[in-house]
Amino acid sequence: MKVMLLKDVYKLGRAGDIKKVADGYGRNFLIPQGFAVLATAGALKQAEKVRKQAEIRRAELNSELKGLAEQINGITVTFSAKAGETGKLYGSITTQDVATAIAEKTRYEIKKQQVDMQPIRNLGEFAARVRLTMDLVPEVKVIVYREGEAFEETTQAETATPAPEAEAPAEAAPEA
Asked: Which long-range CB contacts under 8 A does 90-93 form with residues at least 24 apart?
């Protein structure tokens, strides 16, 4: 089935594009949700108009969300979790958990569908991408540590880091 996209669809195309999709995908999802219409002769004549309108909408949306993307980019989100001896979690950190943590830090509602990552099932450091628009995709750092013991190490590491920086200039001055 050929459809003309009315809105940008992630991993399919931009508004105004003519795409060949599976019958069920077009009939059961794209058309009822208002993302596409059947690619008839009349619809094809309006393709350029739809493209121009979508480009204007996309530019407005990108300019609105640019500040948010800068705010989200580089955020570090930490989770404590129960884990076994090998570092494998007893549960998992999902996109919903990451979206909730980002929302708490930025005060902007992020949907779990916007967070692009696989569920985290091990201890460590991971990267997650947040799809605000097709063009704005800031990256977030996710740190998962063992409940209890690793939290203390992280706190000590954060407090220990500024101290050597303060001592380094003091040491350099007597040597000079």
From this structure: 92/119, 92/120, 92/121, 93/119, 93/120, 93/142, 93/144
Residues 6+ apart with CB under 8 A from 45: none
The SS3 assignment for 115 reads strand
To the nearest 10°, report the CA torsion of 7, 10, 126, 85. 120
User: What are the residue boundaries of the structural domains of the chain, listed by start?
Assistant: 2-45, 70-163
Please state the pTM of the whole predicted model: 0.66
CATH of domain 2-45: 3.40.5.10
Return the DSSP state at 113.
Answer: G
- CA-CA distance, 151 to 112, in Å (whole number)? 26
CATH number at 70-163: 3.10.430.100
Q: Assign 136 a pLDDT band (cuts: 50, 70, 90).
A: confident
